[in-house]
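tool_call: predict_structure(chain=1)
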Amino acid sequence: MNVKNIASTTLLNNTVQMPCLGLGVYKTNNGAEVEQAIHVALETGYRLIDTASYYNNEEGVGAAINSAGITREDIFVTTKVWNSDHGYENTLKAFDTSIKKLQLDYVDMYMIHWPMPNLYLETWRALEHLYKSGLVKAIGVCNCMPHHIDSIIATHTIKPMVLQNEFHPRLVQQDILEYCTKQDIQFQAWSPLMRGRILDDITLKAIAEKYNKSTAQVIIRWNLQKGICTIPKSVHATRIQQNADVFDFELSVAEINTIDSLHTNERTGAHPDHFIEHFAKKEASLKK
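tool_result:
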């Protein structure tokens, strides 16, 4: 992946070009907040917007894209099918709902948000149908381990183009990166900044000081140099702009290895093999 500037793209295994850097909009409020964040991002040069039905802001994402004054073909839009909508027919209905909320004729990437046991393979069959119909330009999976992808490859005709997993300096999954390289699947990082929890790390701050950059900029640069596409989230204009200002410096191999060594296997979200229990506990706590 040769990343020279904010316009740089990576070639997916179906020959679609996907921007290497994008804006994530998880926990960004629908309406003015998400629209303003996207407008700032697009004005800065971002061309990938990552949303999901679970984020409850697809309407705002669509409104921002349609009012941005940028050719639709120049913006890469990702959305995802949620856990409660798995299965062939349910997925097709969920996609229809999403595309109507987005007010778009097609989606650039449609993804399985989490691999629901006994259902995600049927869901993938629906994604294949949407892909073949031209309603989506690429299909992928989120929050999967290699064994999930192996099952898809063994039972279907289309390989995922992208794997989007949690990835940051405290969760460096080098084995999964190598698996994706072998399978020609592009890895994309969600929560690359660990939801802000790692920005005060002493090691990262020392590297950032050397380049007169923020720790967030160092982490994003680290992602890109490791061949990882990344979608940092922010609703603040200055941070959205700063997160894209990462193309005027280059980390050394030693610095990349130093950041890799910060790995502690710490997650902000669920493990792909245990996410059902994670969400069950989350729902139970909300009912208290």
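agent: The chain has a mean pLDDT of 96. Proceeding to next step.
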